[in-house]
Please model this.
Amino acid sequence: MKLKPLLLILLLPFFSMAETIKVAVAANVSYAIDDLKKEFNKLYPDTKVQVTLGSTGKLTAQIKNGAPYQILMGANMMYPEKLYSEDYAVTRPLVYAQGSLAYLSSKKRDFSKGIALLKSDKIKKIAIANPKTAPYGIATAQALKNAKIYDEVKSKFVFAESISQTVTYAVKATDLGFIAKSSLYTPQMAHFKEGENWAELDPKLYTPINQGIVILKEGETSAEVSAFYAFIFSKKAEKIFKEFGYIIP
Model:
């Protein structure tokens, strides 16, 4: 299955949709995935999209251990590229969106200090996604090192399993947390104000988070899987990603 997304879109009206497809989705996309599913099901109401959320590293490990996912929507390109090079994926990884980072506190803070805020004595615990399994954690660590404050604040780190878990930690368990900016565009987070509760992390401090998608071997022969894959590159999906703070390259 090596058709390009545009060609797949042209073929979609000829497909008969009537099965459940299994999609492994990076935790940061959890905020947008329901809207994506709803829009997809307007086009294909008989196709059920079963989503499993998690850190991209853990999802990749599950795939290698036989988990029957048919698509991976990763949080970066590294894991999709590994899966493709090792023949677990049947399409070359393509970028479907670029993610960005923000830092959040449930309490009002002086964000005019910028990233130096982390060094404050009032900030005793900082939530960060585990860089060993979460691409957003890798980007956070890179940003703090480039800002030359990593060594000063690393003793404050509380590691979360995924970038979505850092939101919970930031709101309930730590003084501040590094989160996917996309999480701030949900109704549950609307009461947090930019400049009072959160700020965007300078994108110059970390490598752009290119998020990659692949069709896995389990989905190679499924027209429904091809349809969902193509939909992710459609204008309707692009609009949803932008609404959740993603950049479309």
